[in-house]
Write a structure and sequence with these properties.
- The protein is α+β, with helices and mostly antiparallel strands.
- α2 runs antiparallel to α3.
- The radius of gyration is 48 Å and the shape is elongated.
């Protein structure tokens, strides 16, 4: 006998929503109105489980988080209770019914009050196994994408090997061991590193060459031109100072006595 929609209503030609086959999860008395939840459910109805979960995760509506939890519960029920593969499921049906309404009051002008209705809803999500043809198409698409990726990886490796061979000199093999280091770096046995002797200090950098430079700077320079300039300048300045500063023409020794 076909089902009827209410008392004296017309006959329902299809299967009722609450009689659909599949694994379901129900959330009762959710503190969200049914009209707001239905807008979110319309976005995931008929989609794969992975695509539906991604849509709900990126949604900006408050009801998206609630529906996402119900969807995850339905997938867990299908995998644990019915033994289905979670990757082969899709949202076959989802709907939201109105739940109980909470009455609250708000004071208004002239001592009156206004009723506030806190709506609730019952959210139901049903997941089922994909048809065999859709599963076959998905597997073929995944295999094609995997083969394309493997071909790209193999091509990139071949190009890298060709570049290495071209960069290497003709008739020589690349050496990645100690031979690849410069000769001065390999034979430098007296080099002190931080890993061997701790942090470096200024004394570690002093060597024979630095000491020779210091001695060369301290030694006086013997130059004939410089000596002559010094003697002439000294003599001239002394004579001028001795004769010009004395008013009576005496020398500095007489003045001291």
């Amino acid at each position: 006998m076909p089902a009827r929609s209410g008392r004296g209503g017309g006959e329902v030609t299809g299967v009722k929503t609450n009689e659909r086959e599949g694994t379901r999860a129900v959330l009762r008395h959710s503190r969200v109105s049914a009209s707001k939840v239905r807008q979110v459910l319309d976005q995931i109805r008929g989609q794969d489980v992975d695509r539906a979960a991604e849509t709900l995760a990126l949604g900006d509506r408050e009801a998206a988080a609630t529906v996402g939890k119900v969807l995850a519960s339905a997938v867990a029920n299908a995998a644990h209770n019915d033994g289905l593969d979670s990757e082969e499921l899709y949202v076959s049906a989802c709907y939201a019914d109105e739940g109980s309404t909470l009455k609250r009051w708000r004071p208004r002008a002239r001592g009156r009050a206004t009723r506030i209705r806190k709506r609730t809803s019952h959210v139901t999500v049903i997941v089922s196994r994909l048809p065999d043809d859709r599963i076959a198409r998905r597997r073929a698409r995944q295999a094609a994408s995997g083969s394309q990726r493997s071909r790209r990886v193999a091509g990139s490796r071949r190009r890298q090997q060709a570049e290495v061979v071209e960069s290497a000199p003709a008739g020589e093999e690349q050496d990645t061991g100690s031979g690849a280091w410069p000769e001065d770096a390999v034979l430098a046995d007296d080099v002190v590193t931080e890993t061997e002797a701790g942090p470096l200090e200024e004394s570690d950098f002093d060597d024979d060459e630095g000491s020779d430079d210091v001695d060369a700077v301290d030694e006086p320079v013997d130059d004939g031109a410089g000596t002559g300039d010094t003697d002439e300048a000294g003599a001239g300045e002394t004579d001028e100072a001795g004769t010009g500063d004395e008013p009576d023409g005496g020398s500095a020794e007489k003045k001291g006595k």
